[in-house]
Design a protein that fits this description.
The complex is a heterodimer of chains A (330) and B (240). By secondary structure, chain A is α/β, with parallel strands linked by helices. In chain A, 38% of the residues lie in helices and 28% in strands. With 240 residues, chain B is mainly alpha-helical. Helices cover 79% and strands 0% of the residues of chain B. Classes of the chains: A alpha/beta (330), B mainly alpha (240).
């Protein structure tokens, strides 16, 4: 279990993390999302014990990361962003050093290193100096080091950074395989990647937790837009229809393009405030009243990107409101 | 203990894998060679390594900081401090392991200078007295411990190796100058303090073959002070 309870961290006057709480169970792959400077890395650093929280507590397998730090760290594998390594060492000697740091018994050391090398596809470069390795290989050395002691919690900061598409796919498979009996918490900027890999999404914006749940639950009822295809009679008729669609409350933008078979197609995007509303009925009525022949009207599932953008815009709107209130009171 | 030895071993082997380690060895052996060739290995001179040991405070001055400058600075700069400090290792073990690695490197660097003693033994008649030579090597080791401890502390203060090097050099240079040249100009109330912090006079005693316990206590306690400061500085980084 990984328990994060109401943790906060400030650097001087800057509140990097404010009252973040969540708990993860073995088998979960949690993706931590947030814009740059949102507090993701600070949260990760508090979980790994690199930084102590100013308030709140974190427990890994029941061990507090401050009061029982070393025991908590024994259950943790961590791949920091950009996988910092001792470049003068070889992957094998680096893994040997890491195994010694975890007091792995001599008899178990070699098999554990071999298993980590095989698992992270490092056999070809295991005895080359890390300085000579590509970024992708270095990332894998960092991952091998994080896995070496078979931790129950694996924290990966941007794990697919610098990997090529084939390696990204292999990494996704490896993460899914590793998650069978452990907790994986990863942060990534690649939202599609998170959507494909993670069973849980944690969104942090301006240091606060803004969303936490299964991707399907978070995207439930959210709409990315509506796809409409109709028989185009004349440009004037299309213009009238577009005007009617624009008049529907909650419609933000309409992008229209002809299809290859001579029909017209449009993607209607709802405003952020209307993303949970179902606009199919007013769209259908607008199409009906204009007497247009329709062959498609479908609501498209929202992507994680849409959810993320909505949350960021919500926070920005809240900030604008907070800024305007003191002025209106003057 | 296994963890401390693992960190020390990694530090030591890394120093032999990077150019700065070999340049430091070459620089020290070059300086020691000049002293040996011009001040010791001369016809009619007494068979002793005393000048080499007495001047060691200056010979080690550019060498020890070059070795210690990267100990923590490099970890801070490259970010390797993060995987290191999130392993189940105490900050004290990290510092002590690194310190052990650095002084082991400096001790190994001193080994080729045994050739100087061997040459004296081979050519000099009467043969040199081994007592002062052994005491001299003990003083070199204690000096390496002190310089490395100061350098280690400086390297915990900055991720910039050059700054750590210059900071250590400046600190040790001020200490050496204040306790030698500066002593004469110092006010009377400061003189006992400077006399106590003097490195040069202690090295001269060792070079003569005098192993005074107070000298050993001085080097060990001053080294402990800077190693402890290094632990505190590293710990405080977590809380900043």
């Amino acid at each position: 279990m990984l328990h994060v309870r109401d943790v906060s961290k400030s650097f001087g006057r800057f509140h990097a993390v404010r009252g973040v709480s969540f708990a993860l169970e073995p088998g979960e792959i949690a993706g931590m999302l947030g814009p740059n400077g949102a507090g993701k890395t600070t949260t990760i650093r508090m979980i790994t014990g690199f930084l102590p929280p100013d308030a709140g507590s974190i427990a890994i397998a029941g061990r507090d990361t401050v009061t029982d730090s070393q025991n908590a760290r024994r259950h943790l594998g961590y791949l920091p962003e950009s996988a910092p390594l001792y470049t003068e060492m070889t992957p094998r000697s680096y893994l040997d050093f890491r195994a010694r740091l975890y007091n792995t018994p001599r008899t178990e050391r070699k098999p554990a290193i071999k298993a980590a090398i095989d698992r992270c596809w490092l056999s070809d470069v295991a005895d080359r100096r890390i300085a000579q390795l590509s970024k992708g290989y270095r990332q894998r050395v960092g991952l091998a080091a994080a896995l070496l002691h078979n931790p129950s919690v694996l924290v990966l900061d941007e794990p697919t950074n610098a990997l090529d598409p084939t390696q990204v796919r292999e990494m996704r498979r490896l993460i899914t395989e590793l998650a069978k009996d452990r907790i994986i918490l990863l942060s990534s900027h690649i939202l599609a990647e998170v959507e494909l890999t993670c069973t849980r999404i944690i969104v942090i914006i301006r240091g606060a937790l803004r969303a936490d749940g299964k991707p399907s639950d978070l995207l439930e009822g959210k709409s990315a837009g509506y796809r409409v295809e109709w028989k185009s009679v004349s440009p004037e008729a299309d213009g009238r229809l577009a005007a009617q669609l624009h008049a529907i409350p909650g419609v933000a933008t309409i992008r229209q393009e002809p299809t290859l078979d001579g029909w017209s197609a449009a993607t209607i995007e709802p405003a952020t405030s209307a993303s949970t509303l179902d606009l199919r009925e007013p769209i259908a009525r607008a199409l009906q009243s204009s007497g247009t022949l329709v062959r498609t009207l479908e609501r498209q599932r929202a992507s994680l990107e849409r959810l993320f953008v909505d949350l960021v815009e919500d926070v920005a709107a809240d900030d604008d409101l907070a800024r305007s209130q003191p002025r209106s009171g003057q | 203990m296994t963890v401390i030895l693992a960190i020390a071993r990694r530090e030591l082997s890394s120093l032999f894998r990077i150019p700065v380690g070999w340049i430091a060895i070459a620089l020290y052996l070059f300086l020691a060679g000049i002293v040996f060739a011009y001040l010791i290995f001369n016809p009619g001179q007494p068979a002793t390594l005393r000048p080499l040991f007495a001047i060691s405070a200056w010979l080690l001055l550019p060498v020890a900081p070059a070795i210690s400058m990267r100990l923590v600075s490099e970890e801070l700069r490259s970010g390797t401090i993060e995987p290191l400090m999130t392993a189940p290792v105490s900050d004290g073990a990290v510092i002590f392991g690194k310190y052990l690695g650095a002084i082991a490197f400096l001790a190994l660097m001193l080994i080729p200078t045994v050739l100087h003693a061997a040459l004296l033994w081979w050519f000099a008649d009467p043969a040199p007295d081994m007592g002062p030579i052994l005491a001299g090597y003990l003083s070199l080791f204690l000096l390496a411990m002190l310089y490395s401890a100061v350098g280690l502390w400086m390297s915990t203060l900055t991720p910039n190796q050059t700054l750590a090097f210059l900071g250590t050099l400046f600190f040790l240079l001020v200490l050496l100058l204040a306790t030698t040249i500066g002593f004469e100009y110092a006010p009377s109330w400061l003189r006992p303090v400077l006399a106590h912090a003097a490195i040069q006079t202690r090295l001269v005693d060792f070079a003569k073959g005098i192993i005074d316990t107070s000298h050993i206590v001085f080097f060990l306690s001053a080294s402990t002070l800077f190693v402890t400061l290094s632990v505190f500085t590293l710990e405080s980084r977590r809380w900043r």
